[in-house]
Amino acid sequence: xxxxxxxxxxxxxxxxxxxxxxxxxxxxxxxxxxxxxxxxxxxxxxxxxxxxxxxxxxxxxxxxxxxxxxxxxxxxxxxxxxxxxxxxxxxxxxxxxxxxxxxxxxxxxxxxxxxxxxxxxxxxxxxxxxxxxxxxxxxxxxxxxxxxxxxxxxxxxxxxxxxxxxxxxxxxxxxxxxxxxxxxxxxxxxxxxxxxxxxxxxxxxxxxxxxxxxxxxxxxxxxxxxxxxxxxxxxxxxxxxxxxxxxxxxxxxxxxxxxxxxxxxxxxxxxxxxxxxxxxxxxxxxxxxxxxxxxxxxxxxxxxxxxxxxxxxxxxxxxxxxxxxxxxxxxxxxxxxxxxxxxxxxxxxxxxxxxxxxxxxxxxxxxxxxxxxxxxxxxxxxxxxxxxxxxxxxxxxxxxxxxxxxxxxxxxxxxxxxxxxxxxxxxxxxxxxxxxxxxxxxxxxxxxxxxxxxxxxxxxxxxxxxxxxxxxxxxxxxxxxxxxxxxxxxxxxxxxxxxxxxxxxxxxxxxxxxxxxxxxxxxxxxxxxxxxxxxxxxxxxxxxxxxxxxxxxxxxxxxxxxxxxxxxxxxxxxxxxxxxxxxxxxxxxxxxxxxxxxxxxxxxxxxxxx
Length: 610
Fold this sequence. Notes:
Layout: H1 2-24, H2 29-52, H3 59-80, H4 98-114, H5 120-136, H6 148-151, H7 155-167, H8 175-194, H9 199-210, H10 213-218, H11 225-243, H12 251-267, H13 270-291, H14 296-321, H15 325-330, H16 343-358, H17 365-368, H18 388-392, H19 402-418, H20 425-443, H21 450-453, H22 455-460, H23 476-498, H24 507-510, H25 527-540, E1 545-549, H26 557-565, E2 569-572, E3 582-585, E4 600-603, E5 606-608
Parallel strand pairs: 1-2, 1-3
Antiparallel strand pairs: 3-5, 4-5
Helix pairs in contact: 1-2, 1-3, 1-7, 2-3, 2-7, 2-8, 2-11, 2-12, 2-14, 3-7, 4-23, 5-7, 5-26, 8-9, 8-11, 9-23, 11-12, 11-13, 12-14, 13-20, 16-20, 25-26
């Protein structure tokens, strides 16, 4: 029963959050969806933090909390008389774009539904932390050998946890990112229209993001980059109320802004990097008006939102402070502070924006290596960008987005020539997009996985269609050219979905996609057999306490989750520990027991009490 009810309650909670967002200010439904997603992350985090204080983040507590969210949305619907079926769509739901969107959605859905989670990052920390939360009935800090499990932003994993704890299964884990993909596609036309894109051309923007290879590959993964892209988009949508000179913002708008930014920080800071210029644009226009606000009645909602934001962010920030190793993990990927930047560092940040582009735009790899730093993270060759990885691998960590990048560049060039004929908001939007790109790459160093981290930027890219505002680009020969371009983009996206390295849409492989071995697709050699052997030994023994003495990049999730499903408890071993009676180790003999007794080695990776 719970297996069926869990996704229904989760979707109802999301719908309730959309209603709450619409109660603050009526928006086109596509834009309300992204705000609803951000509000859902925020409320689920508050719920889980509150339940975790009492170690009550189990099925009953989470179920009742989500029912409360649903009831809140229902009450607001009756109070404000919000009629969602009549919400405004920016374009019709039919057209030449509908069929290719349906094909891409079908392929992504098949991949998401058919396979067990098997993403490398998820096996090491995204879903691994979910499994430990599931066992602990708490999302708070726990001992772990894998620092990323306890130190990186947990917002997207909170959604994964809510589904998993209500259903008692990870069958729906891939659907969170798929839902984020759907939300991005639904919101893109309204976003493009908001900044001046022609009505018909705006819908082509949905195809641009839907067919981006990285987006379509992420749509069936259990990472957090598409969720982060939705959060970045939500920040832009929340800023719209403040961007126009004649707009009259309300306290609810500013409170919603606080909630959305908090949700972005909870999921992934890259979402804030991507949307920062829009946030700054909105805040600059608002400061003068806000300074005139003296009524506590008007400031009250903002103060309440700030207090709730502290409640949502506090535990995750404390976990980062309690894990000093976290800064060591992130440091290679980030540029140093302003006080440590020299002339060469400033120049490197500028060049880094080009590096980020050439990882998506087809170029000769040797010609691009001139801009390579001495060492590129993830590349095993000195003075090289290893661009081949972004072109030869169809998985959710490396693939580039050439079509979307080229359309973006072309539209920016067009905007430069048409700037005088565009509405004022269009050039400012394009300037903010360009600023987002430079800011993003001025903060994050180049690495071979950067195309995945860029997804919040690419989610905003269709906004650049405002460069064609006031034109009839969608008609005649130019419309035919656009149709051909979109055909190529869709073909590339469909190819990426079908040939997905970890979750291909191939009938012969779909047959065994739900087998336990699917967790280990493209994983380290032998890890699946080692886990199965450990579980078999655990089943034959009377021990129900399994310790993990593993490395930073070890596959934690499959073993932990499978052991929990068999009734065992799992805990990481950080030092001498007499709690476990069996220890799985891929680092050699675990630390001696507190009594000084050595462990009895059962296999190369398994140790038991003497």
